[in-house]
Amino acid sequence: MSLNFIKPDFPRGEYNALFPDLKRIPKKFKLYTRMSLLTFDYIMSKVSGPLTKNWCNLHDSPILQEERFVITLRFLVTGNSYSALSFSFKIGISTVSGIILECLDVLWNIFTPIHMPVPTESDFVKISNEFFCKWGVPNCIGSIDGKHVRIKKPAHSGTLFYNYKNYFSSVLQATVDANGKFIMIEIYKYGSQSDGAIFYKSKLVMNIHQRKLKIPTLKKLPWSEEKLPYYFIGDGAYPLREYLMKPMRGQRLTTQESNYNYRLSRARCVVENSFGRISKKWEVLQKTIQQKPENVEKVIKGICILHNILIDKNDKTLMNDVKYVNEQEVQEDKQQRYDSQQFQHQRLAQKGAQSRSRLMEWFAKYPLHNG
């Protein structure tokens, strides 16, 4: 039998047979799409135009905009192959591939200015205030970390994509706000690079050094005359900088140093929780993505922008199913990812150490009272 599914005597698949009924059952709809119908309709209102195709009378059964978005969601939700989706929706494999990649591009291009714009100075001030209110850490403007996304080994790539976890990957470096929303992301093809090396080469660092990122100047610590720069929080794999705080190393830490690590790790776990959320919600991240690296980047970007849309729309679908990272796990320093040879810029590290000492003293003076 031919795989030319678009025939009058071969009715279309999952979308026509199942989706209309799911719209009338909110819980089932959320399980199927990982979002509420309200959020789904919001996204459709923005993408319908770009996903509209010019059909002629030779097309007996055109693939409408909504079905295109549903196919893309099912790919992200299940991680199923194009072949499996082809049978489910009774559409050719190459058509499924084209629909998904186009829809991911449309999602990123339309919603990035709305739900992941480049932060302004006022945005950073707001983020800092939220980190202090929620996590008790002053002057923090983001939590940063890297996530390895498992991919099929690209042809003739050697060990470029082979990471320390012993599989092939691309890397998402993400910075999140106090609510776990992505504020800046960068995707790196080669999984063999460490978090610290990726950070050092990143556009984020370049923009900071070139003062293109509108980070506010010094700000007084709460209840103090001491001024401290605004900073990001990273784990032990990252370099210590005036604009980047990291945990203290060593087994024999003082009480003050241990308290500093606890407070920092408590705030830093927000980015780990965001990675947990997207992996739980979008199961394509739990599997080996059978795509070229440039298409893997589209998948990651699409997931990140959907994550932000759900947060902005207060869509808490499946949030209770997420396994959050606890503080004890976060305080593990990820020694295997640290490459001490990457960062020998003593002047920058010295300034970072001075900021860290002042922050440590402030933590000791103003302990948390609510755990």
From TrEMBL:
A Pfam family it matches: DDE_Tnp_4
Entry's localization field: Nucleus
GO cellular component annotations of the record: nucleus
PANTHER family assigned: NUCLEASE HARBI1-LIKE PROTEIN (PTHR22930:SF269), PTHR22930
Entry protein name: DDE Tnp4 domain-containing protein
Cofactor(s) the record lists: a divalent metal cation
Family: Belongs to the HARBI1 family.
Keyword Nuclease attached: yes
InterPro entries reported in the protein's UniProt record: HARBI1-like, HARBI1_dom
Organism whose genome encodes this protein: Trichogramma kaykai
Coiled-coil regions, chain positions: none
Keywords (A to Z) from UniProt: Hydrolase, Metal-binding, Nuclease, Nucleus
Domain DDE Tnp4: 144-308
UniProt main location, coarse: nucleus
One function term, GO molecular function aspect: metal ion binding
